[in-house]
Write a structure and sequence with these properties.
Layout (H helix, E strand, L loop, with lengths): L1 H8 L5 H14 L4 H7 L5 H14 L7 H9 L3 H15 L6 H7 L5 H14 L7 H7 L5 H13 L4 H7 L1 H5 L1
């Protein structure tokens, strides 16, 4: 009964209530997974994103939801794809599982999406080395926020300083 009530809270307008329910469902853990998997089928992005985030927090015990999350990512807007990418990394224990979604978003025409993708890659830290070439490209993005976020992401994933400097000698001198 508690899981069902908390899942209902994921559909609330109040973002704080949704976040609290997300955390509570994650603390319940594996017993909440079947209900969270049902939430993945909703059409409203807020409860779907909250369900994906709860599954990510549960981690490996929710690994059975990985295929559904991959499918969801393939047909969803970037706000959900971003949550799916992080969840796939957490569920599989392999950051490379969700990283391709984020790397693809680095090439999006929207600078906000490029920035969000770089921020999410930064959260994956040292496990996201395969994104270094794409992040290096973003250091020359026309949008300053994308550039600065890419540089921070490169720092977080411990990209070799020589690579970052070689791509940006003028900007670093300024």
């Amino acid at each position: 009964a508690a899981v069902r009530e908390l899942c209902r809270c994921l559909t609330a307008e109040d973002e704080t209530l949704r976040k609290a329910a997300t955390v509570a469902l994650a603390k319940i853990g594996e017993p909440a997974v079947p209900s969270l998997r049902i939430m993945l089928q909703f059409s409203n992005p807020e409860p779907v994103t909250a369900a994906v985030e709860a599954l990510a927090m549960i981690g490996r015990p929710a690994a059975a939801a990985a295929e559904e999350i991959e499918s969801l990512a393939a047909r969803s807007p970037f706000s959900i794809q971003r949550a799916c990418a992080a969840a796939l990394c957490c569920l599989s224990g392999n950051p490379e599982r969700g990283l391709p979604l984020l790397v693809a978003a680095l090439g999006n025409s929207d600078p906000v999406l490029r920035t969000e993708a770089a921020e999410t890659i930064a959260m994956l830290a040292a496990t996201a080395h395969s994104a270094i070439p794409n992040l290096l490209q973003c250091t020359r993005d026309p949008d300053e926020k994308v550039r600065s976020t890419a540089v921070l992401a490169l720092g977080r994933i411990r990209a070799p300083y020589s690579q970052v400097l070689a791509r940006n000698p003028k900007r670093i001198e300024d």
